[in-house]
Design goal:
This protein is of the alpha+beta class and 267 residues long. It contains 5 helices and 17 strands. It has helices at residues 69-82, 153-157, 160-172, 196-199, 219-229; strands at 31-32, 35-36, 38-39, 49-54, 90-94, 101-103, 110-112, 116-119, 125-130, 134-140, 145-151, 180-183, 193-194, 207-209, 215-217, 234-237, 260-266. A hairpin with a 4-residue loop joins strand 10 (134-140) and strand 11. The protein binds zinc ion (ZN). Zinc ion is lined by residues 188, 190-191, 241, 243-244.
Length: 267
């Protein structure tokens, strides 16, 4: 990606990135060295929905392999605060690359074994961590409900995004045609090399040949197609590759446990 907002020491970020609601919040809360600390999908910006993806400006938010867990907790707090959320409301999806979905009614430190969280309550900040896997935001303005999905190849194969959509339908009455979906940063279809044993699990439309016996898998396209097939026509892709952007951690580039985060919350 060549957009200046992802590069250090470049031009200031464009005006459609997250901004303080008033002049009372200093600008450096959101920006440092002209790299946005939180990215958003423009089409999902709405008064009732809060969402964002952290960049390395905030540091790693992944606890599992953290050398300094307290620094990670501080990064999580800063991430929440930069979206004007109480850090104590973060509810973490303890993702396992499956398709289980949890409904969250009150803040819970961590919910293990789920790759999607859904809620219709303000005061709950859905949270998950990523490094090449895709965060997917689901927003139902009609029923004031939202979801956050963690989708790598296993979750995508298991249709985790549409599992979350179905759970929102069951719990909140969400209809797919009312949903706006957003696909955040993840490893792109030109960078995500997989073997035949993974490639063959996906529709050939999302796979292309790489060198030798390797293939390139487009997880964003696969998830978009799954959501489209389920009746969600509004799928907005940030189109930002983790492996290609130094502002984001990539497991394929640096398998050191560094993670970015995604937050979804309702006002
Ligand atoms: Zn890429």
């Amino acid at each position: 990606m060549s957009s200046p907002i992802y590069k250090a020491n470049s031009t200031p970020p464009p005006s459609d990135l997250p901004r303080p609601p008033s002049q009372s919040v200093p600008r450096h809360v959101l920006y440092s060295q002209h790299v946005a600390s939180v990215l958003q999908i423009p089409e999902l910006k709405a008064d009732a929905l809060i969402h964002g993806f952290s960049t390395m400006e905030l540091g790693s938010v992944g606890l599992t392999h953290a050398k300094d867990p307290e620094a990670v907790r501080e990064s999580r707090r800063r991430f929440a605060a930069s979206l004007y959320l109480d850090p104590d409301t973060l509810t973490v999806a303890g993702a396992v690359h499956g398709a289980q979905v949890a409904r969250v009614d009150t803040p819970t430190e961590s919910i293990q074994g789920v790759d999607a969280l859904i809620t219709d309550r303000p005061g709950v900040a859905l949270f998950a961590t990523y490094a090449d896997c895709y965060p997917i935001v689901l927003w139902d303005p009609k029923h004031h409900a939202a979801g956050l999905v963690h989708a790598g190849w296993r979750g995508t194969e298991a249709h985790v995004a549409t599992a979350a959509l179905a759970a929102m339908g069951k719990e909140f009455g969400t209809q797919p045609e009312d949903v706006k979906a957003g696909i955040g940063p993840g490893i792109c279809g030109n960078c995500y090399e997989v073997g035949a044993e993974v490639a063959e699990r996906f529709d050939p439309a999302f796979v292309k040949r790489s060198s030798g016996a390797r293939y390139l898998l487009d997880l964003a396209a696969a998830n978009t197609a799954q959501l489209n097939a389920a009746g969600v026509s509004d799928v907005f892709n940030l189109d930002l590759c983790t492996k290609e952007s130094e502002a984001l951690p990539s497991h394929r580039r640096d398998p050191d446990g560094t993670r970015f985060g995604a937050i979804v919350a309702l006002r």
